[in-house]
């Protein structure tokens, strides 16, 4: 057993050189911080003083912290909006685009442009578009007689505005995933169905949607995991306000650690995020099977 | 009295025409919807670019001038002369190019080791790497900041680049791709006396060009658009990247036109890279599907 290992080692020790950079960064900026963060979450630690072990207190404090609970609700609400509206919108786009033979490339290009653009750039444009008083959207709404809402300053709407913006931004990406899935469905199904006299909507319901299930699941999971990590729009557009209406989970973590310097508390919140995402990822694994991942 | 064949022909003609009208209508509707959505997708970009070229102080009164009347480069001149934009652009470029090269290189090297070599611990290490994919970046954010502080890497280029110089995703992609390349190439080179490094650099890497193209493109775009991490690492204005500067230094500018000029300028490299390398971007989407 040892001899075998020694032989493997002698033959391929070079491999360690090849993985060395990865290993170093992985250990230094991956594993070590991950573990450290775990232990940090059980301490009270503001940067000026030494850490003090307080056991589970951070975690219990989190769940009685109004802002934290609000951030969980906000993030969940945002996720439901993004995944619910956004995924359906992208699916419709994919179905529409799938019918085209020519011109598909140009439309894909246009729809994907917001995807490759940074969130900050988009947020700054959105700020102008959706300003309440001089905003362009409200100006045109006013012209057709609708009183435009305070998109980013009304606490009950601000989160929705951000969700709409991110849906706009991400539509192209999800659409591409759906297109890939659609192209994996064999034409024979549709031919057989049309021989039996099925119209478009029937084919859609009985062939496309069921066969698209793995793709849909994948898109939903990816979108969900991504949504839970939303930060930049909250930071750039509304700073978590108004009245914590757009404080997301990651924004809460950022504030606690980098504005209030509560490192232990922030780490605890980060681990809550970790657990949530882990659960989602495990659900995905269960639903899609292990095979999809590595081999 | 028309013959049966003539009746049949008329019937098919009528039937064909009915189908035609239905499918024409649906085609029109589809194109209309697609064009409408394309318009919605492009409008904000047009707004940004067009207003960035508008001069004069009172920029954003409504009704908005969709075609600005007073065109010129004034906003850009202000940006270049009065703000740190050139420095920010250099920072973003330097960091992004470095990260792209390093990520691709280290990912390929590790991919080679995992795909081609059999060494003790290979599978364990690989699975650990893959497990890391499930950890959201925000969990390691706080300790990473502290580590950087310890190393005195805050507000430095190495702090911006080195922790991001490897990517588990890149490693995974390259491993998968290399596995699909027949070992015959390796063996032939080995017989000719090549060592691992030669095989890697002169045989496999050229063969992996498609995968490398995808990887580099994705890396570039992600690094250019990165926000939270550079936000934490840079506190001094002159070390900031474009994205962070837009959100911090620049919002104090009340001049909307100048802001738009800045965002246009930040947006431009991604747009160019995207237009030039779109097939790699699109392929990247499909590949990230493999990742699950």
Question: What does this entry look like structurally?
Answer:
The complex is a heterodimer of chains A (295) and B (292). Chain A is mostly helical. Chain A is built from 14 helices and 2 strands; from the N terminus they run ααββαααααααααααα. Chain A has helices at residues 2-12, 14-40, 57-64, 66-98, 104-116, 119-129, 136-143, 158-183, 187-195, 200-211, 213-228, 232-238, 249-259, 263-288; strands at 43-44, 52-53. A two-stranded antiparallel ribbon of chain A has the order 1-2. In chain A, a hairpin with a 7-residue loop joins β1 (43-44) and β2 (52-53). Residues 290-295 of chain A have low confidence and may be disordered. Chain B is mainly alpha-helical. Helix content of chain B is 74%, strand content 0%. Chain B has helices at 4-52, 74-82, 85-116, 122-132, 137-151, 157-161, 168-179, 184-191, 196-207, 209-225, 228-233, 242-247, 256-276, 278-291. Chain B is flat and about 70 Å long. Chain B starts with a helix and ends with a helix.
């Amino acid at each position: 057993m040892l001899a075998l290992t020694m032989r493997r080692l002698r033959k391929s020790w070079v491999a360690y050189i090849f993985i060395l950079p990865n290993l170093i960064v992985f250990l230094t900026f991956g594993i070590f911080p991950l573990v450290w963060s775990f232990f940090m979450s059980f301490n009270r630690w503001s940067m000026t003083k030494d850490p003090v072990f307080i056991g589970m207190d951070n975690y219990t404090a989190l769940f009685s912290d109004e802002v934290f609970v609000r951030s969980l609700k906000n993030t969940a609400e945002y996720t439901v909006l993004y995944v619910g509206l956004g995924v359906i919108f992208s699916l419709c786009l994919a179905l529409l685009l799938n019918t085209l033979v020519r011109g598909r490339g140009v439309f894909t290009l246009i729809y994907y442009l917001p995807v490759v653009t940074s969130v900050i750039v988009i947020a700054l444009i959105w700020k102008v578009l959706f300003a309440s008083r001089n905003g362009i959207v409200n100006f045109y709404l006013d012209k057709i007689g609708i009183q435009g809402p305070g998109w980013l300053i009304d606490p009950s709407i601000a989160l929705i505005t951000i969700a709409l913006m991110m849906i706009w931004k991400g539509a192209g990406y999800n659409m591409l995933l759906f297109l890939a899935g659609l192209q994996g469905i064999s034409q024979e199904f549709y031919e057989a169905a049309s021989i039996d006299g099925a119209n478009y909507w029937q084919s859609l319901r009985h062939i496309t949607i069921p066969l698209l299930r793995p793709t849909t699941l994948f898109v939903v999971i990816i979108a969900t995991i991504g949504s839970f990590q939303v930060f930049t729009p909250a930071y750039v557009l509304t700073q978590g306000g108004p009245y914590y209406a757009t404080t997301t989970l990651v924004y809460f973590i950022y504030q606690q650690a980098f504005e209030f310097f509560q490192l232990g508390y922030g780490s605890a919140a980060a681990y809550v995020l970790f657990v949530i995402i882990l659960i989602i990822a495990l659900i995905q694994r269960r639903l899609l099977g292990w095979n999809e991942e590595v081999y | 009295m028309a013959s049966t064949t003539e009746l049949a022909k008329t019937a098919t003609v009528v039937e064909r025409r009915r189908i035609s009208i239905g499918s024409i209508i649906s085609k029109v509707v589809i194109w209309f919807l697609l064009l409408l959505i394309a318009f919605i997708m492009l409008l904000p970009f047009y707004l940004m670019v067009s207003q960035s070229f508008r001069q004069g102080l009172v920029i954003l009164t409504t009704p908005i001038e969709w075609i600005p009347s007073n065109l010129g480069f004034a906003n850009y001149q202000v940006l270049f002369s009065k703000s740190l934009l050139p420095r920010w652009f250099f920072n973003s470029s330097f960091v992004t190019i470095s990260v792209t090269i390093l990520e691709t290189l280290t990912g390929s090297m590790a991919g080679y080791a995992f795909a081609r070599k059999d060494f003790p611990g290979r599978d364990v290490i690989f699975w650990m790497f893959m497990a890391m994919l499930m950890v959201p970046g925000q969990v390691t954010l706080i300790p990473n900041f502290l580590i950087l502080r310890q190393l005195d890497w805050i507000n430095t280029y190495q702090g911006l680049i080195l922790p991001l110089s490897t990517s588990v995703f890149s490693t995974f992609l390259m491993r998968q791709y290399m596995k699909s390349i027949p070992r015959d190439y390796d063996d032939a080179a080995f017989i000719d006396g090549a060592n691992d490094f030669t095989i890697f650099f002169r045989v496999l890497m050229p063969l992996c060009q498609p995968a490398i193209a995808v990887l580099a493109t994705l890396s570039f775009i992600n690094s250019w658009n990165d926000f939270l991490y550079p936000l934490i690492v840079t506190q001094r204005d002159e070390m900031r990247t474009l994205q962070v500067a837009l959100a911090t230094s620049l919002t104090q500018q009340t001049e909307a036109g100048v802001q738009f000029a800045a965002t246009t300028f930040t947006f431009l490299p991604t747009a160019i890279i995207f237009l030039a390398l779109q097939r790699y971007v699109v392929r990247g989407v499909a590949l990230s599907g493999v990742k699950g």
